[in-house]
Each structure stands twice: as structure tokens, then as C-alpha cells.
Amino acid sequence: MKISRFILFCLLAMLSLASASAATEGYKPDGSETLKYKVLFKWGLINKQAGSAALTLRPDGKGGFITKLTAASAPWADKFYCVRDTLIGHLSPGEWKPVYYEKVAHEGGEFTHDKVFYERTGPRVKGRCYRKEWDKKGNLKADETRELDAYGTTVDMLTSFFYMRSLPYQDWQPGHTMAVNLFSGSKKELLTIKYQGKDKVNLDGVERECYRITFLFTSNGGKKSSDDMEAWISADPARIPLRLEGKLPVGKVHCLYVP
Questions:
Q1: Domain spans of the chain, in order of start
Q2: Is-contact 191 180, C-beta < 8 A?
């Protein structure tokens, strides 16, 4: 898994409170919010901060919300793989469904710009997707338009973060799973969330109770499209993702909440 995908999904990453499974004890923001994270690279004895990220949510004045995620690699990591990414989303009022998603990504010297506009008719969801890609020399190498189609709960890399926090883990038994559609600027994936049970996370010497879950990504009829990821979400009304973990071709990446 590329470090950019891990950062963006984990801070990353789940809303559609219209889902029938969103319980009253689940996350339901009523104002502005800012969450900050540090991203650590671990390989053998190496355990070093490789980047940082921040997620903000603010009311749009019409009952909906504007969301934004920024992620950047640390100066030392820039020499190996520079990341400067921004994700922006708009959530509709009431049912909290994603209306718009945009990703501006500078990764490894290349530049990608994705946009997704959502349209809904009953349970059917369509995504009008636009993607442009430039190479390291600034030459346009792709300019694509496509339409993605799905039925049921559908999120993207940014709104999935809030959806993850809304689920009724307190009512689930270990092993319980649920799946939602995941749109990007180029493809549709199936995101399966598997509940592992209660656990504890230690942050700066403070032990906190949490729910542990696993994310599984598939596409094209069940073909694995990305490595699994683990998340630990605080077992309180705030439902803050406290720790997230994913594998890289070399080593692992840990994403830790900064209180």
C-alpha cells in the first residue's frame, strides 16, 4: 500500500448517517471539528515520524457540512516520496450523504486532480468522475471522464472517515461485517468493515478503551484491490480514530491521534 493512500484513507476515510445502522450512540457532529494526526514509519528498529495530517469539518450554513483533509510527508521523507495532498468534500443536510468530492494530490513528483459529483435516485448512486494526471515534467498524461454506478450506501476516501465513526459497534459481536461502496476519481471498490471487538490504546501514557476494526478492499467481483488496514476507534460518543495501521512494501505505517 502506498503511504499516500494509507494517510488519505485513514484520515480517511466514512459518513452516510442515512445508513440504518447508525445508532444514537454513534458519532453525530453538530458543529466544527478539527482532528490532527502524526504518521509514523516503522521498519525494524526504525520508528520515525514520516508525516502529519489534519481533518476539519465545518457547517455550510444550510444544514450540511464541508470537510477537508490535508496530508504532508515530513522533510526527511520528502527525499524518498514527497506527499502534499488535499481532499475536500460536501455532505448534504439531514441524511449526511456525500454530494461532492475533490482530491488534489502531489505524490512522488506527479500531480493528480480528481472530482466526483454524486447523483441519487432511490437506492441507486451515480458518480460523475473527472480525473487529470500530470507527470513529473508537468506534461498532461491523462484527462478522463467516467461514470460510476452503485446501489446502497456509497462513500469516498474522505466521507468514509465519518461513516466509520457512526457505526454501532456497541451492538456488534466480534466478527460482524458490513460493506459499503467506495468511489474514487477512477474506480469503484467495495469496502468491508469487520469488527474485531474491544481493545485498548495507549496514547502518551493514557490508556483508552476503543473498538478495533479491520478494513478490507476489493473490486472486480471480489479481487483484493489493496492491503487490509486496522483501526482503533474510541469507545465514547466522540468516536475518534485513535490509531490506524497499514503495511507498506517495506515496513508499516502507524497513524496516531494527537490530542
A1: 3-257
A2: yes
Strands (E), the chain: 33-43, 46-59, 65-73, 83-91, 98-107, 110-121, 124-134, 140-151, 154-156, 177-183, 188-203, 206-219, 223-234, 241-247, 252-257
List 219's β-bridge partners, or say none: 223
Q: In CATH, what is the architecture of 3-257?
A: Beta Barrel (2.40)
* Closest residue by Cα to residue 256 from 36, 87, 71: 36
Q: How far is CA 32 from CA 28, 57, 158, 187, in A?
A: 12, 5, 16, 31
Question: What are 4-14's pLDDT values in tens digits?
Answer: 444 444 444 33
Share of the chain above pLDDT 90, in %: 36
Residue 138: is it exposed, middle or buried by C-beta count within 10 angstroms (0-12/13-18/19+)? exposed
Q: Is 185 helix (H, G, I), strand (E, B) or coil?
A: coil
DSSP designation for 18: T
Gyration radius (Cα) of the chain, Å: 18
pTM: 0.81
Q: How far is the C-alpha of 190 from the C-alpha of 181, rounded, in Å?
A: 5
Residues in the chain, pLDDT under 70: 1-31, 94-96, 249-250
Cell of 120: 441519487
Q: Who contacts 259 (Cβ-Cβ below 8 Å, separation ≥6)?
A: 203, 204
